[in-house]
Design a protein that fits this description.
The chain contains ten helices and six strands; from the N terminus they run E-H-H-H-H-H-E-H-E-H-H-E-H-E-E-H. With 238 residues, it is of the alpha/beta class. It folds into two domains: 147 residues, Rossmann fold (3-Layer(aba) Sandwich); 80 residues. A six-stranded parallel sheet has the order 3-2-1-4-5-6, sandwiched between helices. Helix 9 links the parallel strand 4 and strand 5. The chain is elongated and about 65 Å long. The N and C termini lie close together (9 Å).
């Protein structure tokens, strides 16, 4: 009997959105105010090395925090700042999403509304520069926070999916067995692998019809988030 449905965040509930330009502009202006002259290309290279490559490496699964990324960037650029200045940069980088939130995927709110009366709903999300505390504010903005009983963010747990601790934390918080939970996500190597490794039913949200992989085997594949309720109903017939 399915009791709980968990969702991935990026490209499952929210449209993935980059805030590189906004962060880059802020940091460049910050250096200008400090009268520190560094070429745009050098700054961009430091950004790439510090912010965007590490979060795609899930081999160790340990979460990389924004303050550590900023520290690495400043070391590359050979810039020394006081703690208050580093905090100013961190806060601006982490909260940039609030200035222009990402869009909800088509059908998300209606799907959550349809599911919430019969199932408990959770979130299991890897976070990059934007932490869970900020993402939760965007949930409130879109009036979807009320659907979620549990939200698990990698920056709060300390590991990225597919590390089993994220999925086991959900099981503990909902006090349920792996057989009573379904996870929905768009990434085979994080969502599908992480769920299946813990014995959880996995639905691959393959919106853009990406090719299948022999390395990962979802239980179901969908192309619209609105297909989830019918998949859940079919599981009750097993």
């Amino acid at each position: 009997m399915i009791k709980v449905i968990t969702f991935d965040l990026w490209n499952t509930l929210f449209v993935n959105k980059s805030y590189f330009d906004e962060r880059f502009k802020f940091f460049s202006y910050f250096l200008e105010k400090k009268k520190i002259t560094i070429s745009s290309n050098v700054i961009k290279n430091a950004f790439d090395l510090s912010f965007y490559l590490p979060e795609r490496n899930y081999e160790k699964n340990s979460h990389i925090y924004t303050e550590d990324r900023i520290s690495k960037m400043l070391n590359i650029l050979k810039i020394n700042l006081v703690k208050e200045e580093e905090k100013e940069i961190r806060d601006r980088f982490e909260e940039e999403m609030l200035c222009d939130p990402p869009l909800l995927k088509t059908g998300v709110k209606n799907t959550l509304q349809e599911l919430c009366s019969d199932y408990k709903i959770g979130l299991i999300s890897n976070t990059g520069i934007t932490p869970g505390r900020v993402i939760s504010k965007v949930f409130q903005k879109y009036d979807i926070a009320r659907f979620f009983q549990v939200k698990i963010f990698s920056d709060e747990i300390g590991f990225y999916k597919p590390h089993p601790i994220l999925f086991k934390t959900v099981l503990d918080r909902f006090d349920c067995t792996p057989q009573s939970i379904v996870h929905v996500g768009d990434k085979l190597e994080t969502d599908i692998k992480g769920a299946k490794d813990c014995g959880i039913f996995a639905i691959w949200f393959n919106e853009f019809h990406s090719p299948q992989s022999d390395n990962f085997n979802p239980d179901y594949e969908i192309h619209k988030i609105s297909e989830v309720p019918n998949i859940i109903k079919s599981l009750h017939n097993f």
